[in-house]
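User: My instructor asked us to take a sequence, write out its structure as tokens, and then describe one feature of it. I'm not sure where to start. Here is the sequence I was given:
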Amino acid sequence: MPTPIPISSVDLPITLFESAVAAGFPSPAADHSQKRIDLNEHLLLHRDASFLFRVSGNSMTGVGIFDGDTIIVDRSIEAKHNHIVLAIVDDEFTIKRLYRRGKIIRLLPENDDYEPIDFKDGQELRIWGVLTVNLRKLL
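Assistant: Let's start with the prediction itself. The structure tokens for your sequence are:
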């Protein structure tokens, strides 16, 4: 089972331009204000409960989560119906959409090539956390 990477002690400063960019880089002639920000403040809901994971597989491509993406998972959020969760099923991590209605609990993929996970007697499900951010490199 992969080891989560805590990100509570990582500083992620970056420069924020406060002008909107519609379809390209702001005009160099325009007067743009800028400031340094900490990405933790923008990406993390609960700094001490947030962890990074690398995605393996393509069962969630329908919601834009692809093989190799890096996701942020927050352990302090209570998982509710329709949340995308990092679950542990029989000691293996999986990312799926949580279906919880009454006593029926299922894990749903977002790719028609995969079947939902319906639980049988003896199977164990633990919700490890809720996905809050998907970080994807474009290059």
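For the description part of your assignment, you could build on this observation: The first helix runs from residue 39 to 43. Try explaining in your own words what that tells you about the chain.
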